[in-house]
Amino acid sequence: MELLELAFGLAKQAGAKILEVRARGFDTQRKADHSPVTEADHAAEAVIVAGLRRACPGIPVVAEEEIAAGHVPESADAFWLVDPLDGTREFAAGRDEFAVCIGLVRNGKAVLGAVGAPAWGKVYGGIVGVGAWVRSDAGQVEIRTRAVPEAGLAVVASRHDADDPRLVPFLAGRKIETLLNIGSALKFCKVAEGTADLYPRFGRTMEWDTAAAQAVVEAAGGRLVEAIGGAHFHYGKTGWENQGFICTGVP
């Protein structure tokens, strides 16, 4: 639980930095891959990376902006995966659907994670095999995925992949009650807390986009597998790029 407490605390601190930047205004720039980046991304990452390296000097940190700058740590059996501001496009557009993601990987599997939702005033966290919780100013509550209700599936999907032609045939034949397109890792959190049942993603993601959130979902009773073949996710891949995936609230 000590490492989860660390991740909870750093996610909250990073979220506060992000909200400070949003309050005073910021510029959006483009990285080499044309994805957006802001002062908030860098400020949040600095808080998280410093905190992790101070508390866990023996565990390497793989952080999105450091990787973009060419700082790649040596491979290890255990490492942190950090996305300091997941959903930068949402943040830059003035929406609240952005997140702070801090995940711990051991032997290729996401085992622990914290996902901050700064604009929601919440941090979700979990340890696979132990449990999952959400914290806010009101306190801490345990969360669990739910059985699919009779009314049908509550589906969450990426806002920016809403026109993905693979989504419609995948959902065909399923009983759908609602379909909500939102940004960032908060889609995973909705599955973990039992307000959504299914999150299919066929487009490109990176390991730091999913590790923390996968740990929260699986700690809450759900699962995440590759969209093609159904294999469990493996972390530490060359290039850090993921295949498409299916996240569900039922194991």
Write a short abstract of this structure:
The protein has 2 domains: 2-142, Fructose-1,6-Bisphosphatase, subunit A, domain 1 (Fructose-1,6-Bisphosphatase, Chain A, domain 1); 153-248, D-Maltodextrin-Binding Protein, domain 2 (3-Layer(aba) Sandwich), CATH 3.40.190. It is of the alpha+beta class and 251 residues long.
* CATH superfamily heading of the largest domain: Fructose-1,6-Bisphosphatase, subunit A, domain 1
Radius of gyration, in Å, reads 17 Å
Q: For the record, what CATH class of the largest domain applies?
A: Alpha Beta
Tell me what portion of residues adopts beta-strand conformation: 25-35%
Number of continuous helical runs: 7
From the spread of the alpha carbons, the general shape counts as globular
Strand order of the largest sheet: 3-4-5-6-7-8-9
Structure in words:
There is one protein chain. The chain has two domains: 2-142, 2-Layer Sandwich (Fructose-1,6-Bisphosphatase, Chain A, domain 1); 153-248, D-Maltodextrin-Binding Protein, domain 2 (3-Layer(aba) Sandwich), CATH 3.40.190. It contains seven helices and 16 strands. The strands form five sheets. It has a seven-stranded mixed sheet, sandwiched between helices. The longest helix is centred in the N-terminal third of the chain and has 23 residues, at 2-24. It is globular and about 50 Å long. By secondary structure, the protein is α+β, with helices and mostly antiparallel strands.
